[in-house]
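pasting input
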Amino acid sequence: MTPFTYHKPASVADALALLADRPGAMLLGGGTNLVDLMRKGVETPDHLVDVQDLPLGEISETDDGGLRIGALVSNTALAAHDRVRRDYRMLSEATLAGASQQLRNRATTGGNLLQRTRCYYFTEPGYPCNKREPGSGCPAKDGFNRIHAILGESDACIATHPSDMCVAMSALDAVVEITGPGGDRTVPFPDFHLLPGDTPNVETVLEPDEIITAVTLPPPSDLSRQSVYVKVRDRQSYAFALVSVAAGLALGADGQVEDVRLALGGVAHKPWRAFDAESLLRGGPASDDAFRQAGQAIVADATGYGHNDFKIPLAPRTVAVALGKALARAQRASGDAR
Amino acid sequence: MSPPSTVSVTITVNGEAQRLDLDPRASLLDTLRLGLDLNGTKKGCNQGACGACTVLLDGERVNACLVLAVTCDGQKVTTVEGIGMPDNLHPLQDAFVEHDGFQCGYCTPGQIVSGVALLAEAASGQPSVVDVDLSPDSAAQLSDEEISERMSGNICRCGAYPGIRAALRQAAQTIQPARA
């Protein structure tokens, strides 16, 4: 690990000042990803700004009945929160499907948004990587790419975003709260992460001198209460998603799909919100056929790179399974209501 | 290159306050093993994948390899030495012996610390992905599927999982967990 200076500010203002005064500084949250990348030589910050003392560790209700999740809320606290479990079920399920208890205890909400890909070539500095060293190349396209992207990838990068939590946040239309030298701003969750394009080293819209302060969830609905997260992986627990789906359905009085949210993990450089498939489903039948067609539409333009070809049929099947579970929950809920 | 400047912190380890001058790069794992001679905590993968280095930090289980010790100023750490020693084994350690919860034993300290935390988490109603609707009152209510899920952060390359589950089931019936 290369040497760095260590700072532990007690206020967001002090943290922002440290970032402004020290180019090359990085924020340290739970450290579950950054410490590992520093040890591997992937990250070599000159200065570490430990954010654990910042007052961003609370979950609070917003005026409109939504939830504001502070950037330092641990994955454990988020997933166990009564209202998250009851009102935004897919988020609790997705967060608990990620990592291990040890890691969830440390991992923060803000850090989860900023975690890096587990692409084998990115995490091993002996290889070229356009994300780590822009212009050096992407060995993954012709290499081992079982865990890599099938949607939205570029010539420069086929890495995937590894988060489960973020897939649910995207489906739930969460909003990222950011503060920086220019003041506060908010970014809709689906716009926070970027596709790789020609600059896979730029992964989010967060500027180096900015800090995520919170993620807010809109008021809950039947859809969010009955939502589901389905994760397919190489082992049953403690593994990254090969394909995952966050889904929520609301049924009209006629049993048709009144509203739907759909996002996929493990398939792209960012949580893949399937807006087009949502449009296909909305107003149509809540049937297995419709679910499969929506899934097929998502992968219509997908590209496989060899080892990850299996994701192209796996993704629509997982979409159908997730929507089927969301439908069962929606039907159970409406049955309970009668 | 000039030697890295150290940072002074105080960490309470197994009930004893330790004043340490740390290279900020030092992991909690290396600090425990090399700085404090507490070798019960094991270094397996050193990248947060195996759980051999599991310790309690302010009562919560964490991978000590991924924690920079300098960040632990004012916090409390419990290692396996603080849970039970050969002349005074924790009931979960007794259960591991009784049920062959290990072969080579290298992952065992992490398994024990993780298991002790699991008992407390279950008693406090923490859900798992098996069913987020269910809040357990105690670990005694957990199915084998739940125990496997909640222990998935601890890998055993000898494959002693059936014994580990049996030991946890027994401990869950007999131990009243206390938050560390």
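fyi Chain A touches chain B at residues 1, 3-6, 8, 28, 30-32, 35-36, 38-40, 48, 50, 52, 76, 79-80, 85, 89, 92-93, 96-97, 99-103, 105-106, 236-238 (CB under 8 Å).
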